[in-house]
Design a protein that fits this description.
Length: about 450
């Protein structure tokens, strides 16, 4: 996908900007929401969905120190494993950047205020800085110490917005864009991405594809909201409304599948695997990250993953897909399914903005599946929606195989130093969240298959 191509058109921006919102977690008021269930109560917008309706503004004042460092990082830092000519030429500048960061003053984040958009921007900037710092270090093995001037404010900001102190999908996709022309509405030909760790078009195309999926996913929010606010499920007109909405949902899911399959035509899997995705990796047992100046605490530090997008989680919640294997459904889980991490999807939620986690929890409180079980005429449209989601996951397995499993067997680029620069790791290919890609994706697909209602 070309970053400037009109993948998904959005006709207007909301009048309410992110800058006017103070962070207090999920909102308790409903002055702008005439219905009991309303996405805006959970910072979910009708047009942009889980993405903000306006790009996050740059931090100013004393916090401009962080912003300037992030701009400099894009110019001077390369992966620590990279032994290519350009990386070697930039090695001294990279070490100078890291030394400067270690000597920073410790800024008081209380002076950031309480606005959600400002705190999210601070999380984005600090998390990007941390990943630039860690992944540009020469690889020596052992623990990695995050310097106090970076570690302390990142942990403090993360606690204020109830997110992990690590780079997340929200940082690299939802909060990583700006408008090319601020006078024009948000369309895929009017956005660009602020931070590209690798500086490559491949990375920009991945973010563009992800944001396009977010905007396409926003179209299903009206379906969810209408169902959550319906009453009288025995009435013919109400049943007809649910049936029509399920048919609409099939169309949206199929369009999401088409977007996903566009990855293989437009995003080079080889460069994605070796030059882009290493920047998103989080802490691991072999080289744990230690936050200097922060009391020892157990953090979620898996790193950014597309599995943290709330779009698919919302579909799962609405259709009642049982990833945790809590219910007896057919066909029974295979031995491979049982080897998968049944808590994986729940873990991915912990990396989402807290408001979006609350949205998913609320969406799960009313069971569409139970309504369908009581209403035979809804079984076919419900199964069609589940089948569409299952096909999307079939496509995801193909993408995971192409972009991770196959590339894990490939030789690193000669331009980055080849095999000598990237020691091969033993074991199965892992996703950025640390799980076996093949096993986890197949388990998700099979859980979706089991959601289809069987004939009595």
């Amino acid at each position: 996908m070309n970053v400037s191509s009109p993948v998904h058109m959005v006709g207007r921006l909301l009048e309410t900007t992110a800058d006017s919102t103070t962070y207090r977690g999920p909102r308790a008021d409903n002055h702008s929401c005439p219905q009991p269930f309303c996405g805006r109560l959970f910072d979910v917008e009708p047009i942009t969905g889980f993405a903000p309706s306006q790009p996050l503004a740059t931090l100013g004042g004393e916090f401009a120190l962080w912003e300037v460092a992030l701009e400099d990082a894009k110019l001077h830092l390369k992966l620590g494993e990279d032994k290519g000519r350009e990386a070697l030429e930039k090695a001294n500048a990279g070490e100078h950047w890291r030394q400067a960061l270690r000597s920073w003053p410790l800024l008081d984040i209380s002076r950031l205020g309480e606005k959600r958009c400002v705190l999210r921007r601070a999380h984005y900037v600090l998390a990007c800085l941390m990943h630039f710092y860690v992944h540009s270090l020469p690889k020596t093995g052992g623990p990695v110490v995050i310097p106090k001037p970076l570690a302390v404010p990142l942990v403090q900001v993360s606690r204020k917005i109830d997110m992990p102190p690590i780079l997340t999908y929200a940082d690299i996709v939802l909060w990583n864009w700006e408008l090319v022309n601020p006078e024009r509405p948000i369309t895929m030909d009017n956005v660009r991405f602020r931070t590209l760790f690798s500086g490559t078009e491949v990375e920009a195309k991945f973010y563009a594809l992800s944001l396009a999926a977010e905007l396409k996913g926003a179209e299903m929010l009206e379906v969810f909201e209408r169902f959550m606010n319906l009453t009288g499920f025995t009435e013919r007109n109400v049943v007809a409304t649910v049936a029509r909405d399920l048919e609409r949902l099939v169309t949206i899911i199929n369009e999401l599948s088409q977007l996903l399959q566009g990855a293989s035509r437009n995003i080079d899997p080889y460069l994605f695997y070796w030059a882009v995705r290493p920047w998103w990796n989080g802490s691991d047992a072999a080289a744990p990250w230690i936050f200097e100046g922060v009391p020892p605490t157990s953090f979620d530090l898996g790193g950014a993953s597309a599995g943290q997008s709330a779009v698919i989680h919302a579909l799962d919640a609405f259709l009642d897909v049982d990833h945790a294997l809590k219910h007896t459904r057919q066909p029974a889980p295979s031995p491979e399914n049982k080897r998968a991490d049944t808590g994986f999807m729940e873990k991915m939620r912990r990396y989402m903005p807290s408001e979006h986690r609350a949205y998913l929890a609320e969406l799960s409180k009313r069971s569409l599946r139970e309504v369908v079980l009581r209403t035979p005429s809804l079984r076919a449209p419900y199964n069609a929606a589940v089948e569409a989601l299952k096909k999307l996951r079939d496509g995801h397995i193909r993408i995971g195989t192409l972009y991770v499993i196959s590339q894990a067997r490939s030789t690193p680029p000669a331009s980055m130093g080849g095999a000598a620069a990237f020691p091969r790791k033993e074991g199965m290919a892992k996703g950025t969240g640390g799980t076996s890609v093949s096993t986890q994706l197949k388990a998700g697909r099979d859980a979706t298959q089991r959601t289809i209602l069987q004939e009595d």
